[in-house]
Design a protein that fits this description.
alpha/beta, 8-stranded mixed sheet, 16 helices, protease, Carboxypeptidase, carboxypeptidase
Amino acid sequence: MAIRHRNFSLYYISVSLFACLQIFVNCDDDLNSSYSTPINRDLYHSSGDLMEMIKNLVHRHPDKLRMDTIEAGNKGYNAEITVITYCQGRKDCDDRSKIRVLLSFGQHGRELITSELALRILSILSEEQFLPNMHPASLNNTLDELVIKVVPMENLNGRKLVEAGDLCERRNGRGVDLNRNWSVDWGKKEKDYDPYEENPGTASFSEPETQIMRKLALSFDPHIWVNVHSGMEALFMPYDHKNMTPDGLASNRMRRLLEELNEGHCQKHCMIGSGGGSVGYLAHGTATDYMFDVVRVPMSFTFEIYGDSSASAKDCFKMFNPIDHSTFNRVLNDWSAAFFMIFKLGPRYLDEFQAKATASNADKWVSMDEYLDGYLMERTQRYGRKMEVLDRGMQEIRTYFRLFLLSSVLLMFMFCSRISKNKYSRPATPS
């Protein structure tokens, strides 16, 4: 009996040890799955430091760079966006014959690498840094015919949430995905809709950030738009909300430029095509679809500049941002060169479009509200506080314009009715 008891005890101890080992392994797996790589402060600037560096860069190069900070609010939520304008000599910045380029970075808070790329591009534009294999004289000739507006950090409030520890946050400061808040196909939800990832807001343009960007786009009227993201490596053209690309010349021109970029700077491994047809899911209410369909930007793109597919879904910093020095520099160098290739090739591709420019402009209908928003913002940017009264009077202008239209229609109706009445009430002339 003693031997049987001892064997039973050994068996019990073995089972208990095995169970404990399994619990330990499972706990270790859970820890690994929830492990999140912290922000590498040796590589990445804080939002405050990055914007301060850009401000100082503009201060050192007033002959090339100008900085405007635009603020907006909605129901107690406020946002601000800084816009940097590059123009050689600063004397021809309003020359509408120049090619106009609008670049937006940091639309999603967790994609820190995109704003670092904005800083690198601005440093090259100001000639404090240089691209390898590009002579400064050649660069200046390329940039002489361009006006470039750079939004280094579109989603400042969301970025601050990430810096506070919520490393997976992509939305703005009140939980809205800014790349789902535009009006083209706004609000449609796919079967796999996740409100944490894709909350479109209560209405299109409900968010101050998208309101500011819409006004900027309408007033600047760019020829080239690039919305810069991370999460993969891709060169996307419209559309995001459907599995197709546009028809005709515009689509062919955009695709040819992207193929040159892919060969020259992506070593042919970047995905090319429509965002909706390439990623595997449709996105509704995106900025690029609005730029192409409403603002009628001839060349509208979304670039994805980095992604780590091996990272855990919960390890957002590693998934969306390089974590080592060599990869960090490679991404910035390769994609800076890609953007300057766009600056060089863009005018060439747009020349094909100039013959149809008049027709395009005739078709470029936007609502009166959008036109006034864009026009008044342009005046405010150009002339500062002297024009703030126009912003405050925007609603009155809209109201008077609508009353004028209504009055004109009523007067025309009354006039036509009077003519018709006189015509049929006139007595017949005797033969």
